[in-house]
Amino acid sequence: MLNEKFTGVGVALVTPFTEEGQVDYQALGDMVNYVIEGGVDYIVALGTTAETPTLYNSERAVIAMYTAHKINGRVPLVMGCGGNSTSEVLDQLREFDLRGADAILSVTPYYNKPSQEGLYQHFKTIAENSPLPVILYNIPGRSGVNMTAETTLRLAREIPNIIGIKEASGNLEQMQQILDNRPEGFLVLSGDDGITIDLMERGGDGVISVAANTFPKRFMECINRAKKGDYAAARAAWEEANMEEAVAALFAEGNPVGAKCALSVMGKIGPTMRLPLVPGTEQLRERFKMLIEKYDLH
Fold first, then answer.
1. Which burial class, exposed, middle or buried, applies to 275 when counting CB atoms under 10 A from its CB (0-12, 13-18, 19+)?
2. Counting CB atoms within 10 angstroms of each CB, which of 91, 135, 165, 167 has the fewest?
3. Which helix (H) or strand (E) holds 63?
4. How high is the pLDDT of residue 2?
């Protein structure tokens, strides 16, 4: 089944920049190899963690093509394709080269705070015009609006091209309501690294992860155990790697500031952000140096 491509761990890939603030394609290609070699199940390009709001449309198009070319079929690819103007999202669907992608991830519209009916019509329109299956992305902390379980389930039942949701509300009761009432095959993916094992134990299908950018091997050691249903072993691996503190550090100064800071400490990419985001502080760098060395998070 197509949906099985997107169980387990999808990594919300960062966009590396040069010191001058240009997209660093060499480092981006190295990141693709790093996370694939680390064992991730699929890659999500041009999501929130990719600093997509600061990327020009022309850059997004090139990143999409480059990432698909670099993956070269080794793992599935989900392409971020969202916004707060439905017509502009449709423009993206027409203009992007999606030939290397297997699905799109589309975020709840931010800032303009649509009603639940507005959210339904937005995603219905996108799904009916998308050449690829659609994974919804609910992240009220960034978008300013929560898509309720009722709206998610309505979309899941009524729109065949909508195959799952990345749920980053942090509300396990809301996620449980979706899990209990979803149609067969509809994916429920965590948008928060820290609750992934809990969600999977409740019947969830995995996570679209920030931590898998930075510590893919150690993160996969935990989630692979959960995929086998051994949640005790998954939690033991999580505690052994002190993933709770590592994940907390990743978000201490915002995302993807933490991810880029950790990756720069490991020499994978530079720490450069595009304004209004700024690189991690020296205190955060020291925190990551300690965690990476002490818990072998390489």
1. exposed
2. 91
3. helix 57-71
4. 66
Catalytic residue chosen out of the listed positions 34, 42, 137, 260: 137
What value does the mean pLDDT take over residues 239-264?
97
Q: Residues 75-133: pLDDT tens digits?
A: 999 999 999 999 999 999 998 889 899 999 999 999 999 999 999 999 999 999 999 99
HEC profile for 223-251?
Answer: HHHHHCCCHHHHHHHHHHCCHHHHHHHHH
Nearest partner of 4 among 76, 94, 56, judged by Cα: 76
By CB atoms closer than 10 A (0-12, 13-18, 19+), residue 127 is: buried
Question: Is the pLDDT reported for residue 3 higher than 80?
Answer: no
166 part of the active site: yes
Question: In the chain, where are the structural domains located?
Answer: 2-229
Structure tokens at 67: 């990432």
C-alpha 231/C-alpha 204 separation (Å) is: 13
- Please give the model's pTM, rounded to 2 decimal places: 0.96
CB of 114 closer than 8 Å to CB of 122: yes
At the top level of CATH, the class of 2-229 is alpha beta
Terminal Cα distance for the chain, rounded: 33
> What tens digit of pLDDT does each residue of 41-50 get?
999 999 989 9
Q: At how many degrees (to 10) do helices 172-181 and 149-158 cross?
A: 30
Under 8 Å between Cβ of 64 and 96: yes
Please answer whether residues 162 and 138 qualify as being in contact, where contact means their C-beta atoms are separated by less than 8 angstroms. no
Instruction: Confirm whether 268 is a catalytic residue.
Output: no
DSSP state of 13: -
In terms of DSSP H, where are the helices of the chain? 25-37, 57-71, 86-95, 116-129, 140-143, 149-158, 172-181, 196-201, 211-214, 216-227, 231-240, 243-251, 257-265, 282-294
Contact call for residues 45 and 13 (beta carbons, < 8 A): yes
pLDDT value of position 1: 64
The 3-state DSSP composition of the chain as helix, strand, coil percent (nearest 5) reads: 50, 15, 35
